[in-house]
Amino acid sequence: MIKIKKSSTADTRTCDFKNVSIKTLLESSCQHIDDVRAALNFFVQKVEEAARVHDSDKISNIKGFHADFLTGFKETTWWDEHRKINRHHLNMEDGIPADVNLIDVLDYIADCVMAGMGRTGTVTPLDVNPVMLMRAFSNTIELLKEQVVVEEQ
Fold first, then answer.
1. Number of independent structural domains in the chain
2. Residues β-bridged to residue 146
3. For a FRET experiment, which of 22, 80, 112, 149 has its CA 20 to 30 Å from that of 63?
């Protein structure tokens, strides 16, 4: 959880701005900056987690991966499961989790760029559904809001 303290004195929409001292404004601004840093650190942790688990089933189920691979993916038993357990196959409808978020979008971009550059030296054009992207945006907001606890001063 991200614990922040209530602060209404750094925004003219939430305080009597004519009666806020420079000291109070400075303290509120420092508090806000620290709060944003905490939120961004939360996202860093989520990106690190995505990096740790990326395509782990390629290792844990190498036999299944290899079996599909040997057929040129005409057999898709492993591949179909892979899209269900990994969150980054956003170019395929069954690869998009209901709670898709911007961490998944970054994972998708990283996956496609690194695969393309590593395998052929180029990256094929990437495309995502704009509706899915807006859902990821909204879900990321909710993901962060669920982590925040506002404490009274």
1. 1
2. none
3. 112
Does residue 26 form part of some domain? yes
Say if 69 falls within a structural domain. Answer: no
Taking only the tens place, the pLDDT of each residue in 20-70 is 899 999 999 999 999 999 999 999 999 999 999 999 999 999 999 999 999
Full DSSP string of 35-93? HHHHHHHHHHHHHHHHHHHTTTHHHHTHHHHHHHHHTTTSS-HHHHHHHHH-S--TTSG
Using left for φ > 0, alpha for ψ between -120 and 50, and beta otherwise, residue 121 falls in: left
| Contact indicator for 89, 95 with CB cutoff of 8 Å | yes
At 151, is the secondary structure helix, strand, or coil? strand
- Domain membership of residue 45 as a residue range: 2-53+87-151
Residues facing 4 on adjacent strands:
150
